[in-house]
Amino acid sequence: MDYQEKLKALRQEIDSIDNQILELINKRATLAKEVGEIKKANNLPIFVPSREKEIFDRLEKLNKGPLPTDIVKHIFREIISACRSIEENIKVVYLGPKATFTHQASLKYFGHSVEHIPVSTIKDVFEEIVKKKADFGVVPVENTIEGVVNYTLDMFLEYDLKIIGEVILEISLHLMSINPNINEIQRIYSHKFAIAECRDWILKNMPHVQLIEVESTAKAAEMAKDDYESAAIASESAAEVYGLYILERKIDKHLYNYTRFLIIGNEIPSKTGNDKTTFIFSVKNEVGALYKALEPFYRNGINMTKIESRPSKKEAWDYIFFTDIEGHIDDEVVKNTLEELKSNVPFFKILGSYPKAVD
Ligand SMILES: O=C(O)C(=O)C[C@]1(C(=O)O)C=C[C@@H](O)C=C1
Q1: For range 319-336, the mean pLDDT
Q2: Which CATH superfamily hosts domain 89-171+257-267?
Q3: CA dihedral angle for residue 265, residue 159, residue 283, residue 296, rounded to 10 degrees
Q4: pLDDT at res. 207
């Protein structure tokens, strides 16, 4: 068999596999639709993060390659997203504009088959859910270099919404253009922080290029779309949204630049066995109060992954502690420890119990 015949035979086999995949995906969608009808009839939520996490965990264990697990998860995220959309059209608001990192986080968590709606402030994300204009929201909460997004934490004091999930995104800045030839690039657009992050790479690789600051990386991508001799430094989703080629990946200088985003909604998801719980509390202004509040977590072997204080805004020098622990409120030990904390402090509130981020 010469190579052309071999290619033809392989492609025929691929076609046949695609036909089977197509049939199976539609079979899966039909089953999901049936599940959706049962859930609607019994007043159960359509989006079930714990079930989705269970699917990802099972596939991760099952995957033997050659496709790497993160790619397998990516494919299944979209399959699940598509099946979910047949059950119901889910609306998700995120901190926009389009093509921001929060947009990317929203796509990573829900897949492409939901309605992703950009709004201009973090407060609007909360408002839209309260007003029932959207089912879920996505907001940034902390970054490994910049620290906590205080504004997001403060919103939980104002609104009675729950954290239903989290997404961790590596913040990678890419060079992108509609022009596939990097040698023809004369100008680079980006936000000033992104330019600062990538200055070393630019000086080394494109020292003669003009740098133009604009208000956001998303805006930079939008401008680069209309200027053939330009490039933008922006996110992966900016390249996707504005149809740009990625000329060079990850040109920023920080190796460990990650942002954690929270998914907010109305109902606490059920436990998966690999969960986190977030709560807030305050303590009396007296010696050892914080120590006494936290000691039960140590005694019961509960891992605290974060504690952050914010002014309560009710009294001067009065603080609220935002705390993350491992475990779910339905775990006996977590439940009892939180009960103990609650009985020892003047203020306590659960913000959510949710599956840990899927890679
Ligand atoms: O199991 C369900 O409840 C489904 O609706 C099916 C499915 C899926 O496609 O696997 C879709 C949406 C849910 O969030 C979880 C899983």
Answers
A1: 96
A2: Periplasmic binding protein-like II (3.40.190.10)
A3: -10
A4: 95
Q: Please tell me the distance between residue 281's alpha carbon and the centre of ligand 1 in angstroms.
A: 34
Q: What is the CATH number of domain 174-248?
A: 3.40.190.10
Task: For ligand 1, say whether the CB of 32 is within 6 Å of any of its atoms.
Answer: yes
Check if 89-171+257-267 and 269-355 are the same fold: no
**Rounded to the nearest whole angstrom, what is the distance from the C-alpha of residue 124 to the centroid of ligand 1?**
28
Q: How far is the CA of 29 from the centre of ligand 1 (A)?
A: 9
Confidence bin at 113 (pLDDT 50/70/90): very high
The response to whether residue 56 sits with its C-beta less than 6 Å from ligand 1 reads: no
Distance of CA 156 to the CA centre of its chain: 18
Q: How confident is the model at residue 155 (pLDDT cuts 50, 70, 90)?
A: very high
- Specify whether the CB–CB gap between 60 and 76 falls below 8 A: no
The domain limits of the chain are 16-88, 89-171+257-267, 174-248, 269-355
- The whole-angstrom separation of Cα 93 and Cα 217 is 19
Model-level pTM?
0.88
Q: What is the pLDDT of residue 253?
A: 85
Output the CATH code of domain 269-355. Answer: 3.30.70.260
Q: For a substitution probing ligand 1, which of 28, 37, 43, 84 has the most ligand atoms within 8 Å of its CB?
A: 84
Tokens of residue 139, six digits = 């907001």
Helix (H) / strand (E) containing 55: helix 49-62
Ligand 1 contact, 209 CB (< 6 A): no
Q: What is the mean pLDDT of the chain?
A: 94
